[in-house]
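Good morning,

Attaching, inline, the backbone tokens for the sequence recovery test we're adding to the shared suite. The designed sequence is right after.
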């Protein structure tokens, strides 16, 4: 099968078309003929060597990709599912070595798969699994109650946008950031209050909420700059492992979010499908590119300013 991978770490130019053996679904697994794979920041981290230590015992090639959508074409033994071969599905993929979503075929645990939302294209569906489950996990960890206030950084991005929409669906009051050009987008996603994006985010939130927000999803990686936006005893979900700096005298709890722990949460993925179908969640595609142009997609993502997800098509 055709895949997009790398044999050495580096810039986007290291991505190349490679040939791999077709994988077979084993016990508890299914195989998907991939038609669309989303390009995420975690993919660029694999490509540029930021995650090289995790791959020290695995020989190249390395295939990135955590989101796939396509056709379920093989069901392995010992699989209990109502899915059938030929159905349109989406999946979260945990890459390891040559196993990643940038492939014509990918094998995943059956619990990592759900149907494509009704009416959605493969490209649209591929924007949902990893980022949607990341946001779902963040909200589950924060455990906010209806009427509580959620602050969101990076609200125009994928995780931030889902945080605004899923937060609103749970009855939260959402205060989100945006640049001037993204303000209308973030308002359309449902934010109750939009504040100016930037390092003074916490000051802007405190102007609206003098005591601070009950919880925060820090999708923009502001880390210590965002912490003052949260009230004493509040909660912060971070997406790159940030756990605060030293003991927090205000009793704030940090929750680093690692989506791999939700990679087999099929019920949650299927709930995201339902929310996409109902319009509670918006599937945003920035642009689609042939898989062979993965390097261009990585360059565009790293240049910044992408709204929605870049999608590779196979």
């Amino acid at each position: 099968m055709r895949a997009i991978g790398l044999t050495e770490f580096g810039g986007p130019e290291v991505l190349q078309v490679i040939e791999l053996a077709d994988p077979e679904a084993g016990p508890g697994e299914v195989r998907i003929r991939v038609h669309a794979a989303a390009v995420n920041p975690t993919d660029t981290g694999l490509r540029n060597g930021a995650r090289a230590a995790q791959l020290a015992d695995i020989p190249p090639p390395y295939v990135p990709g955590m989101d796939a959508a396509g056709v379920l074409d093989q069901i392995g033994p010992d699989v209990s599912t109502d899915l059938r071969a030929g159905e349109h599905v989406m999946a979260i993929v945990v890459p390891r070595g040559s196993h990643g979503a940038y492939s014509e075929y990918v094998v995943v645990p059956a619990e990592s798969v759900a149907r494509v939302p009704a009416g959605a294209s493969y490209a649209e569906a591929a924007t949902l699994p990893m980022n949607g489950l990341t946001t779902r996990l963040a909200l589950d960890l924060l455990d906010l109650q209806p009427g509580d206030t959620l602050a969101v950084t990076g609200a125009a991005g994928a995780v931030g946008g889902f945080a605004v929409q899923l937060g609103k669906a749970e009855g939260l009051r959402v205060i989100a950031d945006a640049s001037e050009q993204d303000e209308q987008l973030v308002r359309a996603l449902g934010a109750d209050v939009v504040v100016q994006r930037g390092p003074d985010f916490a000051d802007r939130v405190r102007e609206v909420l003098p005591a601070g927000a009950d919880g925060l999803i820090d999708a923009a990686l502001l880390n210590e700059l965002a912490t003052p936006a949260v009230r004493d005893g509040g909660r912060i979900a971070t997406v790159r492992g940030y756990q605060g700096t030293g003991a927090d005298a205000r009793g704030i709890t940090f929750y680093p979010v690692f989506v791999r722990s939700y990679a087999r949460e099929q019920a949650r993925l299927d709930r995201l499908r339902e929310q996409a179908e109902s319009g509670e969640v918006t599937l945003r595609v920035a642009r689609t590119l042939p898989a062979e142009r993965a390097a261009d997609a990585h360059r565009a993502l790293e240049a910044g300013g992408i709204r929605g997800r870049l999608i590779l098509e196979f």
